[in-house]
Amino acid sequence: MKKNMSTNAAVEKLRTNIKTSLIVLAALLCIAGAVFSADAINGGEGQTPLQESPTIQMSKEQADVSKIALIAAAIAFAAGALAAGFAISHVGAAAMGAVAEKPEIGGQALIFIALAEGLVVFGFITALMILGKM
Fold it and tell me: Which CATH class is domain 58-134?
């Protein structure tokens, strides 16, 4: 009974630590975004402000194609990253369970995790190819 109580307390402490970490990370990202966006609006050190920079003339069709290309590149990268995260979470858990029972298959487990990580690389390359066509 005591072991179960200590396990529940440890799980609750872990959940609290994870929640706190996520809140701190979100706050830091908001602060960094505000700082960098304010720097871009006002112009960085040694740079001219955005209002004084030369503009590129595009037709409406070119602007529409550029918007769609940027969205497609973002979707390609995001899909690859999300798929890799999903795959690594499942493959990694299964691999670590197998390694716990049979330690000599650790190398094979790492290969399976690396294969799942390849999804991010494919998404990144696809996004670069889309952006290269712009």
Answer: mainly alpha
Average pLDDT across each block of 10 residues of the chain; the chain has 134 residues. List them in order: 67 85 80 64 52 69 84 91 91 91 90 89 90 82
Tokens standing for 43?
Answer: 């112009």
Q: Are 126 and 132 in contact (CB under 8 A)?
A: no
Domain boundaries, the chain: 1-55, 58-134
**Cβ contact 87:45 at 8 Å:** no
Alpha helices in 1-134, H assignment, sequence order: 2-42, 60-101, 106-132
Q: pTM above 0.70?
A: no
